[in-house]
Fold:
Amino acid sequence: KKSTNLAGIAKNNYYFISQQIQLIISLISNSQSWNPRINAYKLSQQIFIKVSRLILIIYTR
Structure:
């Protein structure tokens, strides 16, 4: 079992994480111009997938 130093992981991946967060924020702000009823589910799916991948990457590095 590998021990993970969360502070170290966060520091090493700061740039990557901030990029991913910016991408999620841009997805949300772009959705403002869409039809909310049609796209809310699709948007939440995209965000969920991105966040899940981000968490996976953080914990597997």
About this structure: DSSP finds three helices and no strands in the chain.
